[in-house]
Specification:
The structure holds two protein chains of two kinds. Chain A has six helices and three strands. By secondary structure, chain A is mainly alpha-helical. Classes of the chains: A mainly alpha, B mainly alpha. At the A-B interface, helix 2, helix 4, helix 5 and strand 2 of A face helix 1, helix 2 and helix 3 of B.
Chain lengths: 168, 104
């Protein structure tokens, strides 16, 4: 077995090792490092038929920017939902908006939809792959176009730079 | 366990439960299904996050060594909360549930 076949998903293997070490909650024992490493190599190898084609990460810097946006927005979102939930409910203007996206890979679209759901005041409700549209429900919105522009600029822009387009 | 760690644990527990409470209040007060979805999808992430930070602090100071397996809960929560919100919203659109003040 060549090395390339065993390490088809290096990040997946590393992730499994870390998850194993966290699960047993023991970073000091060599045995668990070995067992975790063994599982990390074995599981991606055994399940390789079911893995989707994953896009390559082109820019780690942009991925970092994206996760930073997400983390700050989770905190902002919590305060905003708290304010809206405790304030006057009658004044809210919930609307549906449609956000066109220009991403190609499934993973990137999943990340975009998750980011929208965790962002302040918006939940992604459906993905239309044929027309490349995301239907998004906004809790309170006065300017539809500004919200669409913000989503595109804040989340889609970094994501588009993170993933290269796969040659089909 | 030093007093300061006790204060920090208490602080994170209180903040976390406050956010979880506010999320539930939102669930009760918002007028339609889609608006109610916003509470659990968001307010609980920070609520649970704070409780987990408190748990990590407590167990790391109580026993020897670092105990951070709560990070896994955070990871799976961040993976599953948007997906479950998405599934609920999709189901509700299919069922055409009543909405409040809908402009279309």
């Amino acid at each position: 077995m060549s090395r390339a076949r065993w390490l088809t998903h290096p990040l997946g293997s590393l992730g499994l090792l870390i998850v194993w070490l966290l699960l047993v909650d023991d970073f000091t024992s060599i045995g668990h490092w070995l067992l975790g490493g063994f599982l990390g190599l074995l599981i991606p190898r055994l399940t390789s038929t079911w893995w989707p084609r994953l896009p390559r990460v082109r820019s780690w810097k942009q991925l970092f920017v994206f996760s930073q946006h997400m983390l700050t927005d989770i905190v902002v979102a919590n305060f905003q939902v708290a304010r809206l939930a405790l304030g006057r409910v009658d004044n809210l203007q919930p609307i549906w908006i449609e956000v066109p996206y220009e991403l190609e890979s499934d993973l990137a679209i999943y990340l975009l939809a998750s980011a929208i759901s965790l962002a302040p005041g918006t939940v992604a409700a459906s993905v239309d792959r044929e027309r490349s549209l995301l239907t998004v429900h906004a809790l309170h919105c006065e300017d539809e176009q500004a919200l669409i522009a913000e989503i595109k600029q804040r989340y889609e822009q970094p994501l588009r730079e993170v993933f290269t387009c796969l040659p089909q | 366990m030093s007093v300061w760690i006790e204060y920090a644990v208490a602080f994170f527990l209180l903040v976390g439960s406050a956010f979880a409470l506010v999320g539930s209040i939102g669930l009760h007060r918002f007028p339609d299904f889609f608006m109610r979805l916003h509470g659990p999808a968001k307010a609980t992430t920070l609520g649970v996050g704070c409780v987990l930070i408190a748990s990590m602090l407590y167990f790391s100071s109580q026993h020897e060594g670092l105990h951070v397996h709560e990070l896994l809960i955070t990871l799976f929560l961040m993976l599953s909360a948007p997906v479950s919100a998405y599934m609920l919203a999709k189901a509700a659109v299919q069922q055409q549930v009543k909405t409040f003040n809908r402009k279309d």
